[in-house]
Amino acid sequence: MATPTDPPSADPPPAEPPEDRPRDADGRARSNRPRDGLGRPLPYGATGVERQPEGVVRTPEQTLAEARRLLEGGKPFHAHEVFEDAWKGAGEPERELWRGLAQLAVGLTHAARGNPASAATLLRRGAVTITPYRVSNPFGIDVGLLVEWADSSADECDDAANGGGSEATPAPLRMPSGWSGQRASMTDLRRTGE
What does the pLDDT look like over 55-95, one tens digit per residue? Predict the structure, then answer.
């Protein structure tokens, strides 16, 4: 029987990872460790959130629809994985667009996890990456709106990280209303300066 002066008992060690790790088509090990809704690893054997399947080939419109659904559902980590699939599967000139959108989603993930400094870094990096697409707004994405939102949100995160904000973490960040979904009149992916 424990007394009030006894030290608290330590949590049992997490279950060991399975010996037989899943592998992708190239033989690289893939983690099957459960994760929470923001992509943080949980102990083996814990119940996690269903993972976003990796390597799914989607059209740009399908990518945006799925990412938008996940973002609106409060799952920026999962949206990042959708953008990452598009990024890894795309050629130039759209490859950097998808990479920048993935960076914005990771920025949202860090903000939701309570890491405002990391959130600010990724939001700014994403904004810089997508800025060259401002001229064409490919696939109906309002790139200018996203860049302005990311810069402003990064400033809020910096304030929170430096103790200048009213809270330790800024209010939950969401992509701005109207960032995607406009009917694209063209899929012109010209980048400024090219």
Answer: 889 999 999 999 999 999 999 999 999 999 999 999 988 99
Contact call for residues 63 and 51 (beta carbons, < 8 A): no
End-to-end, the C-alpha distance of the chain in Å comes to: 74
Q: What is the dihedral of CA 174, 177, 180, 186, to 10 degrees?
A: -150
Cα separation, 60 vs 99, in Å, equals: 13
> Whose structure tokens read 């969401």?
174
Query: What does the alpha-carbon distance between residue 150 and residue 50 come to, in Å, rounded to a whole number?
Result: 28
Q: Share the mean pLDDT of the chain.
A: 81
d(CA 152, CA 148): 6
pTM: 0.76
**pLDDT tens, position by position, 131-175:** 999 998 899 999 999 999 999 999 999 998 888 654 545 556 677
